[in-house]
Amino acid sequence: MQRLINSHQKAAFIVKDAKTYINAEEAWYKFSGKKEGSFLFIIIPVKDPNNTIPTFKKVIDTEKWEDVVWFYSLSNYYPREYKRLVKRWKLLEWFNNGKEYILNFIDRIRLDQLAKRYKPVEKVFSGHRNTQEHLAAALAPNEHFLMDSGMGITNKINNKGYIDYRSYLRRHRFKYLMHILSGMKVYSRGKTKFFTVYKDSVTTKHEVIENEYSYRKMLVKKKELGNLTFYISSPLYRRHNISLNQYILFLKELFAHYKLNAADVVYIPHPVHENSESIEIIIDELGCQLDERDIPVETKITLYDTLPNKCITPYSSSLVNISVFSENRFPLIFAWHGEFDCFETLFNWKKDSLESNPNITIDRLTNFTSLFGFENSHCDKPKFKDFEVWDAAVNSKSFIRNE
Predict the structure, then answer these.
(1) Which residues on neighbouring strands pair with residue 145, listed in sequence order?
(2) pLDDT tens digits for range 276-300
């Protein structure tokens, strides 16, 4: 493979979690492939609310990086309890916005000082959060590549065709003014490229560079097929209006539908949105195996001695990533609950990213346990924009569930 960064040039890779680290690793393999001059920057909130540090320590291969730099931001951290209070009290929301931009200002100064130690660099690969974007710009690169962080990235593209978090801020004068005063920079949108696995389905004015998952293709190329089925879980049941019991009943029906022997199924929980107590209940009920390593499934597959004989998920964008590097060597199945079509974001994602993927099978499940209280026959077109809108309708008691 021809590398796109010369031996004397430097490249920076800025990530916030293990998911974005996977894409950074792929960018490293495609563009650099060398330790010298490759710098990994990890930006997480100072209190590490998502407990990402242990996960990072499991997945980071220090042999790829000349230096691994940890930056603990003061901003971008909101405890869940605080978020609830902010929604209830407008004065508290104003106070919180002011406090956040003061912390942005402090983080900006700290990031500028950090950038001075490494700039200039030839290329920077980063996510789209404000602290990542500022460090990317402060490193004074010749090229900046944004990396996707899952299917939600398509919702970040503004009406001008660019990924730009400032679009939201511009709709709120006070927030945008505070952003300007904080001094946070953004690399020129017209010159910023987009490194993504969604090349064929994304519409943007960014120059799009396809993430072909070349590194993981190389890792799995010589592996044989095994006899295990990977079930990639979804955090759907963690919504307040969906019970764990409903989700377990759905899983039992799904296992029966595919005639799965539970002893040969590996349950892969979501690395963030599932807790150990609920996972234990699920495993006891189903009698299947558990891979509880707190790392992304795209990495887990490369660590097994053999490949799975199939992967099944009701709702996980990781299956799209797996489809790229697995090269159709084993079936990838979206067990698509019929009620998912009631949500505009899911309906559009299925149409734009899944139906056009020749390596993915969409199995629309009907007559299964209801998760959302719809009748399947009424889900031929979207009823709600997303889960949050549905939650609000249920909580307002304006929605009648059909159990």
Answers:
(1) 125, 193
(2) 888 999 999 999 999 988 888 998 9
> Cβ distance 111 to 188 under 8 Å?
no
Query: Percent helix, strand, coil in the chain (nearest 5)?
Result: 45, 15, 40
What letter would DSSP give residue 402?
A: -
Cβ pair 44, 72 in contact under 8 A:
yes
Which CATH number applies to 218-395?
3.40.50
How far is 40 from 66, CA to CA, in rounded Å? 8
**Structure-token pair, residue 44:** 């997480």
Mean pLDDT (whole number) for 107-134: 94
CB 315 within 8 Å of CB 346 = yes
Q: How far is CA 303 from CA 148, 159, 219, 318, in A?
A: 23, 41, 9, 16
Domain boundaries, the chain: 11-212, 218-395
Place of tokens 């979206």: 334
| Beta strand 289-290 pairing with 332-337 | unpaired
Report long-range pairs for 51-55 (Cβ below 8 Å, ≥24 apart).
51/294, 52/16, 52/17, 52/18, 54/294, 55/17, 55/18, 55/271, 55/294, 55/295
6 Cβ neighbours under 8 A, 6+ residues apart: 122
- CA–CA dist 130, 196 (Å, integer): 19
Q: What would you measure as the largest C-alpha separation in the chain, in angstroms?
A: 64
DSSP SS3 for 144: strand
What's the CA gap between 141 and 136, in Å, rounded? 7
Cβ neighbors of 73 (< 8 A, separation 6 or more) are 43, 44, 45, 46, 103, 107, 131
Give residue 2's pLDDT: 47
Nearest CA among 281, 229, 235, 278 for reference residue 257? 229
Q: Where are the alpha helices (DSSP H) in 313-372?
A: 318-326, 344-349
In tens, the pLDDT along 224-239 reads 999 999 999 986 766 6
- Supply the pTM of this predicted model: 0.81
Three-state secondary structure call for residue 354: helix
Provide the 10 A C-beta neighbour count for residue 403.
Answer: 6
- Alpha-carbon torsion (67, 73, 79, 83), positive or negative: negative
